[in-house]
Amino acid sequence: MSQSHSDVVKLVHTFSDIDPEADALVTQNPGLGLAVLVADCIPLLLSSHTCVAAVHVGRIGMTHGIIDKTLDIMEGLGATGIFAWIGPSICGGCYEVSPEMYEEVTTFFPASATSTAQHSLDLPRGAIGILRERGIDTHALGICTLENSQFFSYRRDKTIGRQAGVISL
Ligand SMILES: [Zn+2]
């Protein structure tokens, strides 16, 4: 997908050469693999027996409710027993933001707050909070992209490397 930190979720049925303009893809087609590209944001993969989703979760998308919107679409398609995977992403100790951004995110998602001296956001913990509130079983890998050199980190490398989270039904 062509990602832009939006809150757009698209239901896709077939392969296309044109990347959908979205930050979350959902499909019911078992022949289609969905991918999300990230370098510090969260690659969130959602599975169920009827549909799957790949979600790009960064600070902006999370604030705009992309996780809930994706779950709404999946549940609208009859998904039950949804399971969530949170892949490697920047951790709460490494993701320092401005005081304004910190205030904005932690007001809506208190779980994102950290106890570090700086204004650091814990997006994985915020995402886990949203998912648990919806009753979604969640498994977080707990790997920080900035601290682990096996993964790309935009904050660390300032290059255009990415990793992909891929899921199919
Ligand atoms: Zn870290």
Low-confidence stretches: none
State which percent range the strand residues make up.
15-25%
Structural class computed from helices and strand pairing: alpha/beta
The largest beta-sheet arranges its strands as: 1-2-5-4-6-7
Describe the structure.
The protein has 169 residues and is an alpha/beta fold. The protein has one domain (9-90, 124-168): CNF1/YfiH-like putative cysteine hydrolases (4-Layer Sandwich). The protein has 5 helices and 8 strands. It has helices at 59-63, 66-76, 99-108, 123-133, 154-157, and strands spanning 9-12, 24-27, 33-38, 42-47, 52-57, 83-86, 137-140, 163-168. A 6-stranded mixed β-sheet has the order 1-2-5-4-6-7. A hairpin with a 4-residue loop joins strand 4 and strand 5 (52-57). It starts with 8 loop residues before the first strand and ends with a strand. The model has no long low-confidence stretch (mean pLDDT 94). Zinc ion (ZN) binds at residues 91, 93-94, 144, 146-147.
Features:
5 helices, 24% helix, single chain, binds zinc ion
Q: How would you sum up this structure in a few lines?
A:
This protein has helices at 59-63, 66-76, 99-108, 123-133, 154-157; strands at residues 9-12, 24-27, 33-38, 42-47, 52-57, 83-86, 137-140, 163-168. It is of the alpha/beta class. Strand 4 (42-47) and strand 5 form a beta hairpin.
List the helices and strands and how they pair.
Elements: E1 9-12, E2 24-27, E3 33-38, E4 42-47, E5 52-57, H1 59-63, H2 66-76, E6 83-86, H3 99-108, H4 123-133, E7 137-140, H5 154-157, E8 163-168
Parallel strand pairs: 1-2, 6-7
Antiparallel strand pairs: 2-5, 3-8, 4-5, 4-6
Zinc ion (ZN) is lined by residues 91, 93-94, 144, 146-147.
